[in-house]
Amino acid sequence: MNDYIMRLEGMTMRFGGLTAVKDLSLNVPKDSIVGLIGPNGAGKTTVFNVITGFYKPTSGKVFFKDRDISGKQPHEVCSLGIARTFQNIRLFGNETVLQNVMIACNVRLPIRWWEPPLLLPSVFKKERTIKDKAMDLLCKVGLEDLADEAATSLPYGQQRRLEIARALATDPELLLLDEPAAGMNPRETHALMEFIKNIRDLFGLTIMLIEHDMRVVMGICEHIWVLDYGVLIAEGPPSFIQSDKKVIEAYLGEEYARYVNG
Ligand SMILES: Nc1ncnc2c1ncn2[C@@H]1O[C@H](COP(=O)(O)OP(=O)(O)OP(=O)(O)O)[C@@H](O)[C@H]1O
């Protein structure tokens, strides 16, 4: 196996007459934190939707650990080890913080519908294991004191953290974060950057994120791909991306370039 955990090979995604992503190829190194950036409508979330099986690519292939997973269903992709969060937080609103994580643990520790009515000791054991795993995850992400709170009563930054904890409960090797810093204040954003680096190290993950906040992208990503109208216009480390003329014109803007270059 090579050192790339995920690869896209000439991936194109069309919606009717609109080409949302065109002939995209990229290799994501294992254990890295990488970013996908570009203007609104550039095709970034579509890339995540293709990787996670929400969309079947019009053409091209998705490889995860050298296995072709193009067109697999979202639950299969999740079982294989790819988890994601969404641009708009999607928690189970009526459930507690702990229950939100416990539900996701079911991917690895399934309890069949017919098991609980039989009151089998094995079910209680499995439930205990799931609860312990969920609590352990909450401790690792610093939400253990809020375990019994309603998920949607949490402040915004902590809801995002819970969404990540829930994704981690599926034991992913690749975690896709769609605009994790959206709506956060500068203090929360700074904490989020440390958090993302910590969970990568703690869980031995590879993390790919879509983000408009350039402090986050340039601060933690080791490699960045830039899309514009579905086309890859640049890729490289942050230092290269922020001085690339095409990227400045299409996305970052002259003001950003002046700010970065002093
Ligand atoms: N299911 C769909 N059906 C039709 N068009 C779609 C669908 N999903 C995405 N698109 C279109 O594909 C293009 C890319 O959308 P996408 O959401 O991937 O962009 P994005 O880069 O994630 O944008 P943003 O930064 O605003 O989230 C847009 O023109 C969008 O309207």
From TrEMBL:
Task: Report if keyword Disulfide bond is assigned.
Answer: no
Pfam families from the UniProt entry: ABC_tran (PF00005), BCA_ABC_TP_C (PF12399)
Top-level taxon of origin: Bacteria
- Swiss-Prot/TrEMBL keywords: ATP-binding, Nucleotide-binding, Transport
Q: Where is the ABC transporter domain?
A: 6-254
Identify one Gene Ontology CC term for this UniProt entry.
Answer: plasma membrane
A single GO molecular function, which one?
Answer: L-isoleucine transmembrane transporter activity
Q: Which GO terms describe its biological process?
A: D-alanine transmembrane transport; L-alanine transport; L-isoleucine import across plasma membrane; L-valine import across plasma membrane
Its protein name is Amino acid/amide ABC transporter ATP-binding protein 1, HAAT family
Q: Which organism is it from?
A: Acetomicrobium thermoterrenum DSM 13490
